[in-house]
Structure formats: structure tokens, C-alpha cells
Amino acid sequence: MAHPTQAGFQDAASPLMEELLHFHDHALMVILMISTMVLYTIVTMVTAKLTDMLVLDSQEIEVIWTILPAIILTFIALPSLRILYLMDEINDPHLTVKATGHQWYWSYEYSDYENLEFDSYMIPTQDLAPGQFRLLEADHRMVVPMESPIRVLVSAEDVLHSWAVPALGIKVDAIPGRLNQTTFMASHPGVFFGQCSEICGANHSFMPIAIEAVPLQHFENWISLMIEDA
């Protein structure tokens, strides 16, 4: 999760988020080089003594500032397209979970198991246990096995919502009457928090997302207990 005074992204908890962080650093270096070159050009033009006020054009400069931006855009576009295709790739998911947004909570349905669905509400501040996080902890977490591809189907019951978990590199719009899908794979065990990222009404800030990634054996035990309780 984010921490006070944090200026960058959260630590990556999935291979996809690692790719997004690498692309961010790549684009940042390109922007830094462009900014440095532009600043150098401006300083040079301001401090230089102009000796010819009648020069109207320069073919060499025209060619350079046409070709150079095209090359830079290519270096940005190629890794960007690669990541877009990776984000759309869903091959043989081990588990499918349907997340539905409501005003103002999330409900989860494990499509591979019968009668396994539950609502997930934010825990009020006065009910938080020591070590739990205000506005982020939910009474029922979405539990998934780690190191397994998980497909998430996202929709909404009433108005627009958005299911977003920054550490996993996920942000999917929840639209009433429409089913969107995404995939992720948690690379290590842990609890990863997110929040609705589409303004959906008065309690928009109070519908957190809590995903708990656990080893496969622990997940199977949790599934058995949930089915028995259902």
C-alpha cells in the first residue's frame, strides 16, 4: 500500500505492474533527455550573438526536428503497445471471480464454485482492529491463490464504478449492463488494497477493495470453509 510522503508508484506485486513500472522509468528518461535538450537550446539561443537576421529557413534543421521526434515516439510506442497486448492477454485462468460494484460496496462471486459469493463492506473506523488501515480494510477480502492467473469479470449494479488495485496494475471500469474483464497474477503472498476510482456518489470514498493472495493450499482450505458456511 502507499505510505506517507510517497512520490512514486507502489511496489509491484504482479508481473504486469513490474512491466508498467519499467515503462514508466523508460518514458521518464526520454522526457528528461528531451527537457535537457530543449533547455540547452533555449539557453544557447538566448546567450548567442545573432549575426544574420535575414535567415528564414534551414533545411538541415527542418529534417532533424521532423525525424528526431518520430524516432523518439517510436521508442515510446513499441514498449507501450507490448504492454497493452500483455494486459489484454488472458490464457487459461486458474480462477474466475466476478466483482460487482454497488452503492457503496463490492460483491464477489467465485464463478468456478457453486453458491460462493459475498459482499465486501468497508470496516468503520471505530471497529478497526490494531494494525488495520482506515478506509482500506474490508470485512470480507477477495482471497486468491498466489502465482496463479486470475481472471476478474467486472460490472456494476447501479452506477459507474471502477475496480482498481494499484499494486497489481489493475484499473477496470464497472459499467451497469456491461461485463469487462482483466487478469492478474500475484507474485507473492500479501494483502493488496485498492479503492473505487470512479466518482459514484456520496460514499464513493468508502468502498475499498482488499485482495488477499495466499499459497494454493491455504486458498483451498479457505474455499472449503466458505462452501461449508454457505
TrEMBL record:
Gene3D superfamilies in UniProt: 1.10.287.90, Cupredoxins - blue copper proteins
Cofactor notes: Binds a copper A center.
Catalytic activity: 4 Fe(II)-[cytochrome c] + O2 + 8 H(+)(in) = 4 Fe(III)-[cytochrome c] + 2 H2O + 4 H(+)(out)
Protein family membership: Belongs to the cytochrome c oxidase subunit 2 family.
Topology within the bilayer: Multi-pass membrane protein
Cleavable signal peptide: none
UniProtKB keywords: Copper, Electron transport, Magnesium, Membrane, Metal-binding, Mitochondrion, Mitochondrion inner membrane, Respiratory chain, Translocase, Transmembrane, Transmembrane helix, Transport
Source organism of this protein record: Solea ovata (ovate sole)
Protein name: Cytochrome c oxidase subunit 2
NCBIfam families xrefs: CoxB
Keyword Mitochondrion carried by entry: yes
